[in-house]
Amino acid sequence: MFKLAPSILAADFAKLGEQIALAEQAGADELHIDVMDGVFVPSISFGMPVIQSIRSASKMFFDVHLMITEPVRYLEEFVKAGADGITVHAEACGNLAATVRKVKELGVRVGVSIKPNTPISVLDEVASELDRVLVMTVEPGFGGQKLIPECVDKVKALVEYREERAAGFDIQVDGGIGLSNVKSVYEAGAEVFVAGTAVFRGDVAQNVKAFKEEIGVAD
């Protein structure tokens, strides 16, 4: 499986609707929406109003990545705004299991993200409940960073972990993904790829197609 999830964090917000449409028409599979609170990560991005404003403009799966402290406080609001899936950070939740259960109760797909230095073992209590695990391949909070090579080994380890536990989650990667490295990360076992700058800088439609061609799944 290969899915491309362009991150609107790197989009031109003066042309946001247009760029989302271009990515969708070119074959992007999901739309990745990074929400940052300036506490869990240094940067501040956007929240529910932006998601609401673009929901009617796209039929893509809205993959909402909450890089915020204690996200359980806002889960209902993000679902109401149009999230199809919510990914929370293991490091940001006082009670990760309860947060995962709450997302599931709201009827959307649930994911857990782990930072580069966070051990996979933090997933032990919730692995069987997850639809997705997001491996951050850079330190979260800023776009345009280079992929940390050691994170590719973490993807491989997560594949083994999934098999050992007979879990059903997909494996997503986010951070520094581009045409120069997407194939190696795909071969390591990742299935869903977040790309921001590599999609939204330049010709959006051509960039999406180039990713698919690199993996050999172009339409």
Describe this structure in words.
The protein has a single domain (3-215), classed as Aldolase class I (TIM Barrel, Alpha-Beta Barrel), CATH 3.20.20. 34% of the residues lie in helices and 20% in strands. Helix 1 (16-26) runs parallel beside helix 8 and helix 2 (48-55) runs parallel beside helix 3 (75-81). With 219 residues, it is an alpha/beta fold.
What keyword list fits this structure?
219 residues; alpha/beta; TIM Barrel; 8-stranded parallel sheet
The description of the largest β-sheet is: 8 strands, parallel
CATH superfamily: Aldolase class I
Between the first and last Cα atoms, what is the distance in angstroms? 14 Å
Low-confidence stretches: none
Q: What is the number of strand segments?
A: 8
Give the structural class: alpha/beta
- Apparent shape: globular
- Beta-strand proportion: 15-25%
- Classified by CATH, the class is Alpha Beta
Topology:
Elements: E1 3-6, H1 16-26, E2 30-36, H2 48-55, E3 61-67, H3 75-81, E4 85-89, H4 96-105, E5 109-114, E6 132-136, H5 150-165, E7 170-174, H6 182-188, E8 192-195, H7 197-200, H8 204-215
Helix pairs in contact: 1-8, 2-3
What's a quick, concise take on this entry?
With 219 residues, this protein is of the alpha/beta class.
